[in-house]
Specification:
The protein is built from 14 helices and no strands. By secondary structure, it is an all-alpha fold. The radius of gyration is 27 Å and the shape is elongated. It starts with a helix and ends with a helix.
Length: about 325
C-alpha cells in the first residue's frame, strides 16, 4: 500500500471524529486521533517487519492494555486509546511497502489536513459555537414561556431541555477546567456565568410550564432580555427602560406565582452579573475508578488476543509473515 492510501485512511479517520463541537475540543480530539493512530501504525509495522509472530501478538496485547487503561478517563483519551489500538491492528496486519517511516507520516498528514480544515475558523470565530449553544437555551426558554397554557408547552419544554444539554456538552471542557482553577479568559467566564443561570432558568421555566397558567409577553420575554445582558451581540434593541414585569404590564395574579418571582429574580441576577467578575463553582464529573479501568483493560486485551489467535489459526501461522516477505520482494 502506497503513502497516498494511508494519507486517505488518516483523512477518513479524522473525518470520522470531526463534528460540530467547539473548535478547541475538535482540535484536541483530531490531534489525539493523528498522534495515537500514527504511533499505533508504527508499532504494528515494526512488529510485523521483525518477522516474529510473537512480536505481533505482544504489540497488540500491549496496546490493548494501554488503550483500555486510558479509554475511561475522558472523551479525548477514549479516542486516543481506540485509535492507538486501531493503528496497531492495521500496521501489524498489512504488509507495508516502502521505508518504515513513510506510512505513519502519510497517515499523520491526512489527519492534520482534516484538522486544519475543521479548526481554521477558530481564528475568527472564537467561542462562537459555545456562545450560540448557550444563547439557544435562552431562546428555547422564551419559546417555552410563550407556549405556557397551550398544548405545545410540553414540547417546548423538552426542546429547552435538549438545548440545555447541548450547551452543557459544548461547555464541557471549560466546566472541567473551572473545577481546578478560575478561568482567565473573560469571554469564557461570561459564558460559564450564562450557563449557570441557564440551568436555574430551566428549572423555573419547567415549574411555570407545569403550572399551566398563560403568561403575559413581558414575562415570557425575560429570558431574551437575560441573554442580551449576559451574551451581548451588538445588535440589542434594549432602550434602557426597566424590562421587569410590573403590575401595569401584567395583572397581579400573574405575579403571585413563586416561579414567576423566581424568574424576575433571575433577571435581576443577570443584570447584576453582566459586568461582574464571578467565580463559577461546578461539581466535578465522576470518573471510573482504578479497578474499573483495570478490568476494562484486561477484558479488552483478552478479546484482542483471542481475535489474533483465531486469525492465525484460521489463516495459517505463516500467512502474515509470507505477506510481509512478498512486500519486501516487490520493494526490492
Amino acid at each position: 500500500m502506497g503513502p497516498a492510501v494511508f494519507a486517505g485512511i488518516g483523512a477518513l479517520w479524522g473525518v470520522g471524529q470531526d463534528g460540530s463541537s467547539p473548535y478547541r475540543l475538535r482540535m484536541q480530539r483530531l490531534l489525539a486521533v493523528g498522534l495515537a493512530s500514527t504511533l499505533g501504525l508504527l508499532i504494528g509495522e515494526l512488529a510485523l517487519r521483525s518477522g516474529h509472530a510473537a512480536a505481533v501478538a505482544g504489540c497488540l496485547v500491549s496496546t490493548a492494555v494501554v488503550g483500555g487503561l486510558i479509554s475511561l478517563r475522558g472523551p479525548v483519551l477514549s479516542v486516543t486509546g481506540m485509535q492507538l489500538l486501531l493503528g496497531t491492528t492495521v500496521g501489524s496486519g498489512i504488509a507495508l511497502s516502502g521505508t518504515w517511516w513513510q506510512p505513519p507520516l502519510a497517515l499523520l498528514s491526512g489527519v492534520l489536513l482534516v484538522t486544519f480544515l475543521s479548526t481554521s475558523p477558530w481564528v475568527w470565530r472564537r467561542h462562537r459555537i459555545e456562545s450560540d449553544s448557550v444563547r439557544a437555551v435562552y431562546r428555547a426558554a422564551a419559546q417555552a414561556l410563550t407556549a405556557v397554557g397551550t398544548p405545545h408547552a410540553e414540547a417546548a419544554r423538552r426542546s429547552m431541555t435538549l438545548a440545555l444539554n447541548d450547551a452543557h456538552d459544548a461547555m464541557a471542557p471549560d466546566l472541567a477546567a473551572a473545577t481546578r482553577h478560575r478561568p482567565e479568559d473573560p469571554d469564557t467566564s461570561r459564558l460559564l456565568d450564562a450557563l449557570r443561570l441557564a440551568v436555574r432558568l430551566g428549572e423555573v421555566v419547567s415549574a411555570l410550564v407545569w403550572e399551566g397558567r398563560p403568561l403575559p409577553p413581558v414575562v415570557a420575554d425575560l429570558p431574551l432580555k437575560m441573554a442580551e445582558r449576559l451574551l451581548p451581540t451588538g445588535r440589542s434593541t434594549a432602550t434602557g427602560q426597566s424590562l421587569l414585569p410590573t403590575e401595569k404590564a401584567a395583572p397581579e395574579r400573574d405575579l403571585r406565582s413563586p416561579a414567576v418571582r423566581a424568574l424576575v429574580e433571575l433577571r435581576g441576577t443577570a443584570d447584576a452579573e453582566a459586568g461582574a467578575d464571578v467565580v463559577l463553582s461546578v461539581p466535578a464529573r465522576l470518573r471510573p475508578g482504578r479497578t474499573v479501568r483495570l478490568r476494562y483493560a484486561v477484558l479488552l486485551s483478552a478479546c484482542v488476543l483471542v481475535a489474533h489467535i483465531s486469525a492465525v489459526l484460521l489463516h495459517g501461522p505463516t500467512r502474515l509473515l509470507a505477506a510481509h516477505d512478498r512486500g519486501l520482494h516487490l520493494q526490492a
